[in-house]
Amino acid sequence: MIRENPFQKNQELILEITGVTSEGQGVGRSEGVAFFVPFALPGETVKAHIIKIEKRFCIAKVVEILSRSPHRVAPLCEAYEKCGGCALMHMDYAEQLKTKTQIVRDCLERLGGFTGVEVQDTIGMSDPWRYRNKGSFPVGSVDGAVVFGFYAERSHRLIPLFDCPIEDARITAIARTVTEWAKRNHVRVYDETTGKGCLRACVVRIASTGERMVAVVTKGELPAEESLTRMIDTESLYHNRNDRNTNVLFGPSFRLLKGSPAITERQGDLQFLVSPQSFLQVNPTQTEVLYDTAIRLLDPKPDESVADVYCGIGTISLALARHAKSVIGIECVPEAIEDAKKNAALNGIENTLFLCGLAEDVLPSLVEKGMRPDAIVIDPPRKGCEEAVLNAIAESGVNRLVYVSCNPATLARDAKILSTYGFRIEHVQPVDMFPHTQHVETVVLLRRDEKEEMKMISDEKSRYKSWSNLKSQMNDLLCDSLKDKIQYFYTTYHEVHNAYGRATINYKKKEMVAFSWVEMYAQEYEMSQLYKEGKKISYGEMEKKKWMPEGKLCEIDFINSITIYLKTDISSSLTSDNLLLRVFAYMDRRVGKRTLIRIKDDVEKLPEWVKQFYRLRCEAENINFQQNQTTDETVVLMTRN
Question: Which residue stretches of 490-534 are H helix?
């Protein structure tokens, strides 16, 4: 084990490249230190220049290739090394496919701990060029010229493009027209550093039907609108207004300038309406391969129900619906759910139900209420599944699961968790959705033996029933305890939006009347100073931003909805001075026996109505209360059964 990296920044050395990382970088070793070298290939000997030093590894760049790999080819893109989007374009395509197969195998073995799992050869393309049907291009000024392009890897430095060999040629042609429009009409481009300027980006999508959709993104109003609509020949043209100083592409406001509000995409015999914010795989040829593989491995039967988690606009759901009795799709993006419903109607499919909400909230809730699908498909984002989703899958009793992954590392992590519930990997099929990049999609079939399934159902059945009853009790108790407080103002820190929030809640009617955030970015330092000085902070002194104006919640979702919006941290909630925060902590299933026993002394300091929630949780966890008289006080002792 090395304790100190013996190398220095800017040092040069000779390295033998022995492998490749999941990010497409060459890997070599010297004196026990790993070196990551972009654009170097396994089997090559290179002269490398160290550009970054860490304790156990170095990052270096190639100065000279001393011994070339037979798989090295000349990249077809002039911006290849600057852009960083296609990390493997210098490797011949056959070797790219082998490399991606190995990346999936390595992740499953090293990160997941799986041995003996056979990974099938990656399914590639006969023509791995011009496959992308969507381009999202930031627009900027380089040397005084208006240009479009991509940001350099891990930066916001714009790399100008004229063309991109993996994009449909019609996409970059339209992007060039947008920049020409800006030049002719003297439209200023947006500058991230100053927040000034107008034209921010253009997004172009080409459907397999040939229909085109363009969205032009500006800060502020769209100038020279008539000129733009005249110059852009497309079936659908939108203006998106994004006034925020952020690197998020779209703002909340879309306006149709001309043409149809949606274009039509085809996958097999299904049609899909695609709107500007719709998520759709960018490689239509390989998308059919990917989804056909998923459905073939899942093998749904006409009498089976299937859950499609992270369903997007319903592409997999609707394909599954042709084979299954019913399909439930879950997605957190409201626009995607609306698209999914429209697409079901468009294709005459009536055996689907689409639910909007976070998968980690909706799926556990459905399982708790008794949903027992025969099979499940999950297609999560790169970060993988929240543990609550994996737990709910296990607790649903399902014994057949297909995991569609765009990140082998999180796939391995999640499969490892599922293996603790009795699932085993039965089939692994990588699909090359993104030739010349380091990315690989993987379809994995996991099964659980019937014995394991029955054991899980037996173990969880009574626990879920009792938890459901407990939740109902606590919901009623909360409303009863606070029914005299018609409005209760609750303040909490929201980790995602970096803001303090305030909820106006009507407990008597079981409604959340309003919810708002006070943005903290500009005032963070001033607020910390005020706190240090012991001063109270008035919300009226700060700029407010409505987060959920006049949001009404139905009774059955009262507790769940408030908890979702308040996003409390359980560990800090258990010792918080905010009594409502403590109550929500006792309602959380993550608080188990050990924690309940450990915080016994803290609970004794609380008001009686809060103690009632604590006692209910202790009873649910089979923690007994034994009361012993000591002078005039009652001491509550808790022991395990």
Answer: 524-532
Token reading at 319: 């394909």
Per annotation, catalytic residue among 58, 406, 479, 618: 406
- One DSSP character per residue, 115-177 reads -SPPBPPPB--SS-SS-B-EEEEEEEEETTEEEEEEEPTTS--EEE-S--TTB-HHHHHHHHH
- Indicate the SS3 state at residue 519: strand
What are 241's strand-pairing partners?
A: 218, 253
In this prediction, residue 626 has a pLDDT band, given cuts at 50, 70 and 90, of low
Categorise residue 327: left if φ over 0, alpha if ψ from -120 to 50, beta otherwise.
beta
Distance of CA 356 to the CA centre of its chain: 15
C-alpha span between 131 and 112 (Å, rounded): 32
Tokens 């060459």 belong to which residue? Answer: 26
Q: How far is CA 312 from CA 129, 338, 355, in A?
A: 26, 10, 11
Q: Which helix (H) or strand (E) holds 545?
A: strand 544-548
86: pLDDT strictly greater than 90: yes
Residue type, 232: I
pLDDT at 207: 96
Q: Give the pLDDT confidence of 382-431 residue by residue, as tens digits.
A: 999 998 899 899 989 899 999 999 999 999 999 999 998 899 999 999 99
Tell me if residue 539 falls in helix, strand or coil: helix
- Better-predicted residue by pLDDT, 52 or 555: 52
Nearest alpha carbon to residue 414 among 434, 439, 444, 449:
444
pLDDT at 53 over 90: yes
State the pLDDT at residue 316: 96
Tell me the H-state helices in 327-386.
334-346, 359-368
Phi-psi region of 514 (alpha: psi -120 to 50; beta: other; left: phi over 0): beta
CB atoms within 10 A of CB 558: 19
Determine contact, residues 275/262, Cβ cutoff 8 Å.
yes
Per-residue tokens: 492: 């909490």
Query: In which band, very low, low, confident or very high, does the pLDDT at 226 lie, cut at 50, 70 and 90?
Result: very high
Judge whether 245 and 238 are in contact, CB under 8 Å: no
Tally of CB atoms within 10 A around 3: 6
Q: Residue 153, Cα to own-chain centre: how many angstroms?
A: 20
Give the span between the Cα atoms of 332 and 232, in whole angstroms.
Answer: 33
- Structural Rg of the chain based on CA atoms: 28
Average pLDDT over residues 223-229: 97
In our burial notation (b when 16+ CB lie closer than 10 A, e otherwise), range 239-263 reads bbbbeeeeeeebbeebeebebeebb
Rounded CA separation 241/510 (Å): 37
Give the tokens for residue 548. 């959920």
pLDDT at 543 over 80: no
Q: How confident is the model at residue 640 (pLDDT cuts 50, 70, 90)?
A: very low
Backbone angles phi, psi at 576, to 5 degrees: -75, 150
Average pLDDT, the chain: 82
Of residues 524 and 68, the one with the higher pLDDT is 68
**Residue 628 pLDDT:** 40
Give whole-number Cα distances, 379 to 151, 330, 397, 438, in Å.
27, 11, 19, 19
Is residue 479 among the annotated active site residues?
no
- Mapping DSSP to helix (H, G, I), strand (E, B) and coil, where does residue 28 land? strand
